[in-house]
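1st attempt posting a full record on here, be nice pls
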Amino acid sequence: MEINNYSSVGLRTAADVASEENADNQSLGQDDFMLLMTEQLKNQDPLEPMDNGEFLAQIAQFGTVDGINKLLENFDSFASGMQSSQALQASNLIGRNVLVDHDEGYLSSTGTVQGAVELNNTADVAVNIYDLTGEVVNRIEMGQQSPGLVQFNWDGTTFSGQRAASGRYRVEVEATRNGETESMQTLMSSNVVSLTLGGVGKEMKVELENLGQVDFSHVYQIL
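the predicted structure (as tokens):
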């Protein structure tokens, strides 16, 4: 709301106008506020003049609105600075191997598929490898494992002993304890290719070699 004639405010308070300006998401500066206060004093009812308490309350009200706006501006600046700092730190990940919350691994023509699982209790661990059609191509029996981070490695061979074709494979880790089997969160090892900033309030993305993007928060460990 644009005010061209401050005398038009009549008996409305300067704080009322300030609140309306703020509600319209427009700027009311300190100079404008002082002009409004002057017009208000000139147009007040001489039989019921504004007392000191009311006058100070209006100034305090404007100060609160102005202070909140400045606080929001400072917060946006702080958030932008934090994101820039995180991006700078995260840039060190490029070219590094990480363990990431993911259920797929990529098998190259000569490489292996590596990953890990975090165990809270001792359990028998087995790793199932599926191709993209959903068929199990191999199963790795790892036996009893102690609590902690347990790493596994698939050399690319199938049940028949032949090497599987290059490509992406889904990995499922099972943990069996006291006769009960449950699927565990799979952590896959992959190389970080690049990072993508998501803007203020949005999470950074990590580009994994041959596996696509994941949220930065899904990175479990830097290897």
